[in-house]
Design goal:
Elements lengths: L1 H11 L11 E5 L2 E4 L4 E4 L2 H4 L8 H13 L10 H12 L5 E5 L2 H20 L5 E5 L8 H6 L16 E4 L4 H7 L4 E6 L2 E2 L5 E2 L2 H13 L3 E5 L23 E4 L10 E5 L1 H4 L15 H16 L2 H22 L3 E7 L2 E6 L4 H10 L2 E2 L1 E3 L3 E4 L7 H25 L1
Parallel strand pairs: 3-15, 5-6, 5-7, 7-10, 10-11
Antiparallel strand pairs: 1-2, 2-3, 4-12, 8-9, 11-12, 13-14, 14-17, 16-17
The protein binds pyridoxal-5'-phosphate.
C-alpha cells in the first residue's frame, strides 16, 4: 500500500523534494504514524510549523468552528476573525499593523515591496536596495530568492531581481561600508535556520538597529522559522533587547494551517495604501481562526516558560553528546531550535539512521543536523532522542574505525 502511494507520488507530483520513503497519515502531539501504523517521534515539526504539536485540540476546534460559520470572504469586506488575529499579534509584539498573506516567501515579498515603497514615498527614487546576509534563506519566489544569500538555490533561475547586496553574517564592517549606497532595508534572520542554525551576535544586532535608525533604513527581521515561541521567547528579537521595523511570520503562525504575516510599525506599514499590495486568501477567516487559536494557546498554556525549561534540558543532553563524540564539531541554538554540526558531510546519512530508529530530524548544509521538536515536547521524548543519538553516533564511530 505504502509503496504504491510512493510510486504514484513520484510519477504525479513535481520532483522538488527529496523525501523519506514513508507516507504519513496521522499525527498527535510529538508523534506521527505512517500507513502501516509505525510510529515516529517528530523532531522536525513540519519544519518548525507544528509548534503546538500535531492536531492541537484548540487549533483544530477553532478552525472547525470557523469552517462551518464562514470559510472565506474576500478582503473587499471586513472580517472580525482577521481583526482578532491582528489584535493578538500586535498586543504581543512591537508591531502596530499587520498585512496577512499565505506563506513565508509571500510575507518576505511584502516586506521587500514595503521597504522600497516607504523609501520611494519619502525620498523619491534612488533608494531601493536591500542588504541581506550570506547563508540566509528567505523563500523561493523570485524576490525572496533574490534576497536569499545562498548560491545553490539560484542555479538556473537567473537573472535574479536587482538590488540585493549580500554581506557576511555578523560582520559590522561590511554593513557599515554598504549602508549609504541607495539602501532602503536590512534583512536578517536572527538565527539562520536553513543556513545551519547560525546565531546572530547580540552586539551585531544592536549595531544593526543603531545604524539602520541613523540612516532611516528599515530593519527587517525574518522570523518565519524563529517566531511563535521557537527560541524561548514569542519572537527571537526579544532576546536581543531591540525592536525591528518589520517582521515576517509564517510556518508556526497557524500551527499547520497555511498562513503568513508581515508585521510592522505603522509609520512604515502606512506606505501601503489601497491597491498597492494584496492577497486573495490573506487573513481569510479560516487562517485567522488558526492564528488566533495558536497564539491564545501559546499564551494561555504557558508554552514559553515550558520551552525555556526544555531548552535547558536538551542543551545539556546535546553538550554531553558533543563531549563524547569527536565527530560533533559544534552544538548551537536557542530554545527548541538546535543544530549539531558534524566534522564531515555525513548529515544526510545520519538523518536516515535516525529515521530507521523512528525519529524524524533533518539536515541543512550537508553537515548540520537540525532539531526542531514541537514546543510541547517533554523530558521523556528528549531522553529518547538523546539515547537514539548516542546509538546512531556510536555506530557511526565504529564504522569509521573499521574503515581506517
Ligand atoms: C521557511 C522559511 C521561509 C519560506 O517560507 P515558505 O512558507 O516556505 O515560503 C522564509 N524564511 C525563513 C527564515 C524560513 O525558514
Amino acid at each position: 500500500m505504502q509503496d504504491e502511494v510512493i510510486l504514484k507520488a513520484q510519477s504525479l507530483i513535481a520532483n522538488t523534494y527529496r523525501r523519506f520513503p514513508v507516507v504519513v497519515t496521522r499525527g498527535e502531539g510529538c508523534w506521527v504514524w505512517d500507513m502501516n501504523g509505525r510510529r515516529y517521534l517528530d523532531f522536525i515539526s513540519g519544519i518548525a510549523v507544528c509548534n503546538l504539536g500535531h492536531t492541537n485540540r484548540n487549533v483544530v476546534s477553532a478552525i472547525f468552528t470557523q469552517l462551518e460559520k464562514l470559510t472565506h470572504i474576500s478582503n473587499l469586506f471586513y472580517n472580525d476573525t482577521q481583526v482578532k488575529a491582528a489584535e493578538i499579534l500586535i498586543n504581543n509584539s512591537f508591531g502596530e499593523k499587520v498585512f496577512f498573506c499565505n506563506s513565508g516567501a509571500e510575507a518576505n515579498e511584502a516586506a521587500i515591496k514595503l521597504a522600497r515603497r516607504y523609501s520611494y514615498r519619502k525620498y523619491g527614487g534612488g533608494r531601493w536596495k536591500i542588504i541581506t546576509m550570506e547563508n540566509s534563506f528567505h523563500g523561493r519566489t523570485m524576490g525572496a530568492l533574490s534576497a536569499t544569500g545562498q548560491r545553490k538555490f539560484k542555479e538556473g533561475f537567473e537573472p535574479m531581481l536587482d538590488g540585493f547586496i549580500c554581506v557576511p553574517f555578523n560582520s559590522k564592517k561590511d554593513v557599515r561600508e554598504k549602508i549609504r549606497d541607495g539602501i532602503c532595508g536590512v534583512f536578517i534572520e536572527l538565527i539562520q535556520g536553513e543556513g545551519g542554525i547560525n546565531v546572530a551576535d547580540p552586539e551585531y544586532v544592536k549595531y544593526l538597529r543603531e545604524i539602520t535608525l541613523e540612516n532611516d533604513v528599515l530593519l527587517i527581521i525574518d522570523e518565519v522559522q524563529t517566531g511563535m515561541g521557537r527560541t524561548g521567547k514569542l519572537f527571537a528579537y526579544e532576546h536581543y533587547g531591540i525592536e525591528p521595523d518589520l517582521m515576517t511570520l509564517a510556518k508556526a503562525l497557524g500551527n499547520g494551517f497555511p498562513c503568513g504575516a508581515l508585521i510592522g510599525k505603522a509609520k512604515y506599514m502606512d506606505a501601503f495604501e489601497p491597491g498597492s499590495h494584496a492577497s486573495t486568501f490573506g487573513g481569510n477567516p479560516l487562517a485567522s481562526s488558526a492564528i488566533l487559536a495558536t497564539l491564545n494557546t501559546i499564551l494561555d498554556e504557558g508554552i514559553i516558560p515550558k520551552v525555556q525549561a526544555m531548552a535547558e534540558y536538551i542543551r545539556e543532553g546535546l553538550e554531553k553528546l558533543k563531549e563524547r563524540f569527536a565527530i560533533i564539531k559544534d552544538v548551537r541554538g536557542m530554545g527548541l531550535m538546535w543544530g549539531i554540526e558534524l566534522e564531515e558531510n555525513e548529515g544526510e546519512k545520519m538523518v536516515r539512521d535516525f529515521f530507521n530508529e523512528g525519529i524524524l530530524i533533518n539536515c541543512t548544509q550537508g553537515r548540520v543536523l537540525r532539531i526542531l521538536p514541537p514546543l510541547t515536547v517533554n523530558q521523556e521524548e528528549i531522553d529518547l532522542f538523546i539515547e537514539t543519538a548516542e546509538r546512531v553516533l556510536k555506530r557511526h564511530e565504529e564504522e569509521r574505525e573499521k574503515t581506517k
